[in-house]
Amino acid sequence: MNYIFISPHFPDNFQNFVFRLNEKGVKVLGIGDTPYEGLTQELRDALTEYYRVDSLENYDEVLKACGFFTHKYGKIDRIESQNEHWLELDAALRTDFNVSGFKNEDMDRIKAKSAMKEVYRQIGIPVAEGRVFTGQDDAKLLAKELGYPVCIKPNIGVGALDTHNIQNGEELAHFFRDREDQLITGDRIPYIMEAYVDGDIVTFDGLTDRDGNVVFMSTLIYDKPVLDIIEDDTDMYYYIPRDIPKDLEEAGKKCVEAFNVKERFFHFEFFRLKDTGQLVGLEVNCRPPGGMTMDMFNYANDIDMYSEYANIVLGEDFSAPITRPYYCCYIARKHRRHYVHSREDIDHNYGEYILSNVEMPDIFSAVMGNYGYLFRCETEEKMMEIIDYISRLEEENH
Q1: pLDDT number for residue 160
Q2: Cα dist. 396→189, 222, 340, 349, 388 in Å?
Q3: Any alpha helices (H) in the chain, and if so which ranges?
């Protein structure tokens, strides 16, 4: 099997996909914009060959690289990056080289929030009311229709990037003033406006086989919305619980089928309304969840998801038993904040639960902190005790 992996070196933990595929005899052909010498020795050894391009944003360069690999190794069987940023690149290459998986025509419904809403509605999952607006006058009318507060975000975008909670008409006008240069040049990103939803974000995550059957599933719980973390420059934690609510599983599996997720990881986000507990569809992500979540899947279940993914790609069964013996948590810290307990204190008091200390790249630090701790334990009570200990700030003692 010939498997082209786009940007195989980033993020660091995704190199494990390459290692496990290589161990199972797959020819892994890397394409990236990092010099070969900048790859770790372990990654170099696991790649059958690496083709460096000046920029992965230059489609002609990447197309040429795929053509080179096709000429040298024969038909390409898979093209993946496992990365949200490159989903459209992956799809374009699959389209041009007739490789299985999402193609160009699939991108709108798995990238555009407006298209996701239509799919949610078709399968009976409620969504926040709203739509893409065409300009300031249209936005004013829509805000009046929905009622303040409203949420504005790019129709195509990931997470809380460029997302804004708008409380009133003055803030809406400010939103447009900040984009005056874009409006003049015509370089305006299409935005969608939605009614504010008072709920907590929960996720349905997992992996499907070639036929679209869910062979692994999990969920994530966050202590606060990503937008709040960015706006308040605070730290955060999120964790994998030991149980998945039945209604979340049912809604998640409906989404897997509706979005035709096959031989892929998925990360579906929902609001759980605070007043009724009802689930409201938020966003679809047809790739592995970010941050340290892949490793958290492994720690929470004592399995190797990277190896199980390789099995699925090769048409084999997902073989690991899923017993969910642990809560697994990532808790972030930021350098500018002053914590009561030192790293030495944490290691001394909770070292038996700590799995690793994680240094975060700057690109992720606004949300994931400058560094963080991965830990696991058997009970929710112990987990919350450790979270409180690690996150306690000095000013809380005054």
Answers
A1: 64
A2: 42, 22, 9, 20, 11
A3: 15-23, 41-46, 59-73, 87-97, 107-111, 113-122, 136-146, 169-177, 180-185, 226-232, 246-258, 293-301, 305-313, 343-350, 365-368, 380-391
pLDDT tens-digit map of 53-86 = 999 999 999 999 999 999 999 999 999 999 999 9
3-class DSSP state for residue 330?
Answer: strand
Backbone φ and ψ for 144, nearest 5 degrees, come out as -65, -40
Nearest residue to 293 via CA among 203, 159, 390? 203
Nearest C-alpha neighbor of 9 from the set 369, 361, 265, 296: 361
Q: Which residues contact 188 (CB under 8 A, 6 or more apart)?
A: 179, 182
Distances (CA, A) of 137 to 141, 169, 186, 194: 6, 11, 17, 16
Distance CA 282, CA 268 (A): 8
Bridge-partner residues for 265, per DSSP?
A: 207
| Confidence (pLDDT) at 398 | 40
> Per-domain residue ranges for the chain?
2-109, 129-195, 199-397
The answer for residues whose C-beta is within 8 angstroms of residue 347's C-beta and 6 or more apart is 354
- The DSSP bridge partners found for residue 26 are none
In sign, the C-alpha dihedral spanning 10, 14, 17, 20 is positive
Quick one: fold of 199-397? D-amino Acid Aminotransferase; Chain A, domain 1 (3.30.470)
For residue 177, the Cα-to-chain-centroid distance in whole angstroms is 31
CATH architecture type of domain 129-195:
2-Layer Sandwich (3.30)
Pick the closest to residue 356 from 341, 340, 371 (CA basis). Answer: 371
Structure token digits, residue 332: 């972030």
Longest dimension (CA), the chain: 68
pLDDT tens digits for range 354-379: 999 988 888 778 888 889 999 999 99
The secondary structure element, H or E, covering residue 373 is: strand 371-377
Secondary structure (DSSP) of 130-174: EEE--SHHHHHHHHHHH-SSEEEEESB--TTTT-EEE-SHHHHHH
Is 346 a residue whose pLDDT tops 70? yes
pTM of the full predicted structure? 0.91
Correct CATH for 2-109 of 3.30.9.10, 3.30.428.10, 3.40.50.1240, 3.40.50.20: 3.40.50.20
In the chain, % of residues over pLDDT 70: 96
